[in-house]
Write a structure and sequence with these properties.
CATH topology of the largest domain in chain A: BirA Bifunctional Protein, domain 2
Oligomer: homodimer
CATH superfamily of the largest domain in chain A: Bira Bifunctional Protein, Domain 2
Shape of chain A: elongated
Distance between the termini of chain A: 39 Å
Strand content of chain A: 15-25%
Helix content of chain A: 25-40%
Radius of gyration of chain A: 27 Å
Chain lengths: 450, 450
């Protein structure tokens, strides 16, 4: 077999990188569970008709075909199976399918891979992992859950060593209400044009709004002025009001943005802040109120690493409508660029202690030492072979294993000892009581240099 | 949207079932890491040529196609991507791809989904999860790792509440050496015929061996007698020797089986035992020494739930060969039938304490109570709305949340209190010090009735 090459867009991690990812996932999971979110997973596939039902026909979905497909395979393309491209569409389906067995409001988290057949580049992958939380109600869902999404994610972020994060929030009712207050009837093309502000700049958006969408120059001016409003407190509400547009929907949106900013006042601010940014729109069209986006300092080119919003009618079975609010953290999108810049772990193995082997005949003794350490939660393994101690120590060194254990049989004075191979310090020790420093128990995250 | 129906072969779990699965995965992960196995994950896809390279052209692989495939898509079917059907083929590829960055012997675990387009039935799914451990060496790998595989899995099983498990071990060298000692040159057809013993019985296997494989009646007799030998200690070696066949390869196999049985003598035996069963062959043809299979008491019809073996040349880059030994636990195959018989958890949410809400104005107070509990590792959430206390308590009851917290504002005497809603007992309590019984902190596994 020739040495295989990586597949573009399908990232894989070395063991030390995976140790970092695993710790990130565990932190997310622990935080979500402390807040009472139940973990679920959905199957990786959905019928194509469901994947494409949101009207985004340009989605790059992966379609599945069995290699030995037979007559039982559906001819109808819509009945074929495709890999899910996010965790929201399958979750909406899961809620409908199991509505009779779930209790609402239903709080769930979901950490899974998703697939998109897009052209790979930094921050965009064909297979990647997301971590979502959502709360879904039956027919109604109070606004305080919009606040809770931010609170929970902020608490998780505070435990991860990531670059500073800035969450930008907006509200569809505010924006659409503003456009309608201006006399615009079809708001979707305006949203789409303003969404391009980052890419093409205000002059071109203005041209789009007047020449293609058909707004007056004054209407376009006001749309652009709205999109430039940003701030961390209720002053943004006053700035919007100062533009002189009115209407019930706009008022409701302003009220919700003010509630949200007020609700997250106490959110931990160390490397994380929340600002209203009235240019934020989110591409997907199912959002109906709050929308969230999050940029990582120094990595703004990746786009948003944590996004979501309120959707009042993502799922409905005719009798009941299930409104929800959710937010999705891009685990791979966040970690992959950090890995490529050197983020890693102190070692490539969970092993904290390597127990040396005196000779093959005493393997049982060394195994017992390792078992006694494991019994107390200390990851330990026995050296692969009874080589010279120098070779056994190098086995540990290469992997970053911090400690080497010498059973009583291995030392001249017949007393077991443990050596910190970084300092070379060796001290007598008892497997029943010796404990490594907390920082050495598990691989620790190592930030990129510089 | 009409209520969606489940997809046959793609099982999904309700939140309480997923809580059980999550605990099983955490136990496996903790055990593997204590033994120094590094966790890795591989991408879900491999080029078809790699998936099909093991000669099993009848594999039911899922092939991927981008919905909007363009000219950059390979025409050559072998270059197309398919979903992996096990974790061994991708692991072998990962080892070759990253050999320069890994240290050998390399110990890894991998817990991931795999896909097979087979006809679904109990114990056989189109999407399911496996948990694998493997140790891979560069050019050589000592036999003691064959013992360690059993030791590690047994330790994990001892912490799971599963029906009794019996691991059956055999050795390819023993069986092939025996056949060759009998004068059989092409051993593969004999292996395939004997592998059918369970399904078609000894008379038919005998007929196959004589009529189709071309053995003499006496050779066929001896092959069948070998396959009936079973036992938990070195007596099996004497039984084989009593058949009067000799040869170096056979001797090596006998030696290894004896070593394995001796090595696992001390493995915890509570609900888990290991026996040599010389009929065990394993379908895949890359095994070269030890093979493992595991049956679950009362669920023998599922086939093996934990299988693997030694492969001396699964991966090779021309210069270096990477021999390995590994074992794979079928997480879904084991849990799915138990779920359908009632295995579940005590509650459908991680929440241990529901903090009641006096009125919307005091939500901040209730949130602080919940935050103080979470600070000490107690999962807590605030009631969704300031309904009558009876309604708030029923919210907890429906989800199996064991405790309801009344902030000071909610009680007549102004002292905070906690109620165990199962007993109705209510006591004064302080968020800074109250602790639930250990068993209530997380959802507990509930075994099927009967």
């Amino acid at each position: 077999m020739a040495r295989p090459a990586p597949l573009s867009g399908f990232p894989e991690w070395l063991p030390a990188q995976r140790a970092v990812e695993q710790q990130v996932i565990e932190t997310l999971r622990r935080t979500f569970e402390l807040h009472g979110f139940a973990g679920i997973e959905t199957r990786s596939v959905e019928p194509m008709e469901r994947l494409l039902s949101k009207g985004e026909i340009d989605k790059e979905v992966y379609v599945l075909r069995r290699l030995h497909a037979d007559d039982s395979e559906p001819d109808d393309a819509a009945k074929q199976l495709g890999l899910h491209f996010d965790l929201t569409v399958p979750f909406a389906r899961y809620v409908l399918e199991n509505a009779g067995k779930l209790d609402f409001p239903f709080r769930r988290y979901q950490i899974q891979r998703v697939w998109r057949g897009e052209r790979p580049q930094e921050g965009r992958y064909r297979e990647f992992r997301q971590a979502d939380i959502d709360v879904v109600g039956a027919d109604t869902l109070p606004f305080h859950y919009d606040v809770e999404m931010v609170e929970v994610m902020a608490e998780a972020f505070a435990q991860l060593s990531l670059p500073a994060l800035r969450m930008q929030v907006n509200n569809r009712k505010l924006v659409q209400g503003f456009y309608r207050g201006l006399g615009v009837e079809d708001v979707a093309p305006v949203l789409r044009a303003v969404d391009k502000l980052d890419k093409i700049g205000p002059a071109q958006v203005h041209a789009l709004l007047t020449d293609e969408v058909g707004l007056t120059a004054q209407q376009a001016d006001l749309c652009l002025r709205l999109a430039t409003i940003t701030g961390g407190d209720a002053a943004v509400v006053d700035e919007v009001r100062a533009l002189g547009v009115t209407g019930d929907e706009l008022e409701q949106g302003l009220h919700e943005v003010a509630l949200l900013l007020d609700g997250v006042r106490d959110v931990p601010r160390d490397g994380f802040d929340v600002v209203a940014d009235l240019s934020i729109a989110r591409g997907l069209d199912y959002y109906t109120g709050t929308v969230y986006e999050t940029k990582m300092a120094g990595f703004e080119h990746l786009g948003s690493v944590c996004s979501g919003g309120r959707y009042d009618s993502l799922a409905s079975d005719g009798r009941t409508t299930y409104p929800g609010v959710g937010i999705s953290f891009g685990v791979t999108r966040t970690l992959a660029p950090l890995f490529s810049r050197g983020l890693t772990a102190t070692r490539s193995t969970p092993t904290c202690v390597l127990v040396v082997l005196v000779d093959e005949g005493s393997r049982a003794t060394s195994r017992e030492c390792a078992a006694a350490l494991r019994e107390r939660g200390i990851p330990a393994e026995v050296a692969p072979a009874a080589q010279k101690y120098g070779k056994q120590i190098r086995y540990a060194e290469r992997r970053g294993i911090p400690f080497v254990w010498f059973p009583a049989e291995a030392s001249a004075d017949g007393v077991a000892a443990v050596r910190d191979i970084r300092s070379g310090e060796q001290v007598p020790a008892d497997v029943a009581s010796w404990t490594p420093p907390d920082d050495d128990l598990r691989p620790q995250v190592v930030q990129p240099a510089g």
